[in-house]
Amino acid sequence: MLTSDLILDATLLPAMAVALFGGVLSFLSPCVLPIVPPYLAYMSGMTMGELSRTRGAPRQVLTAAAFFVLGLSTVFLLLGAAASALGRALLQWQDWFVPLAGAVIMLFGLHFLGIFRIPILARERRIEAGDRGGSALGAYVLGLAFAFGWTPCLGPILGAILGIAATEASLARGTVLLAAYAVGLGIPFLLAAAFFPRLGKTMDGLRPHMGRIETLSGLLLWTVGLLMMTGQFTALSFWLLETFPVLGSVG
Fold first, then answer.
1. Residue 197 preceded by cis peptide, ω within 30
2. 91, 167 in Cβ contact below 8 A?
3. 3-state SS string over 181-225?
4. Domain extents for the chain?
5. Which of 16, 60, 152, 177 is deepest in the core (most CB within 10 A)?
6. Is residue 141 within 8 Å of residue 206, measured between CB atoms?
7. pLDDT digits (tens, 9 = 90+) for 205-235
């Protein structure tokens, strides 16, 4: 329902679920999860030892984490609006644009599955945030830099969500999708800040399973891309609406 004026309805729910889950998978990816503790320490102006010895989350840790998430969310929302604007410009070519976006998302999935590697997604493009540790402004700037520069982990999944947002051809709906992705990535980061170091052991326990997480990410992207190429993603949306009529009141 690309021409709908509704910001949120049942046809958007599957895409929102994919975006939310994609954000969680991005957080659990091999080059995001391991850097969470040192990022929290740096942004809060603490050492790793001080952070590990704390009982309960100091206020500066929570503040830093919140502003970091705000920074990366700012970038994601702007990207969502830009992708949707592109989709509106290409609205007359939607019949081939949606399958093309699905094909690109499938390629991202194959990248995660290791069937082949896309070179541009294998290089990190980090933007230095400067020596601003220990301040809310520094955490916000670091969040902006993280969202712009951490392409190996965020690139394929974020690109897939942007592709879906572009097919929405609605600024509001595309922005909602990227907001869902930001929630999926940001909430685990805030939880890690709130319950560190109790979650430290849990995070360490996930590291041996990074390969499985990448495989799950690849399968998710490949499936979503296939559904878009075959036109079944929209069909899934309307199936949900017919199966669960109560969803029709959403929006």
1. yes
2. no
3. HHHHHHHHHHHHHHHCCCCHHHHHHHHHHHHHHHHHHHHHHHHHH
4. 62-245
5. 177
6. no
7. 666 777 787 788 788 888 888 887 887 766 7
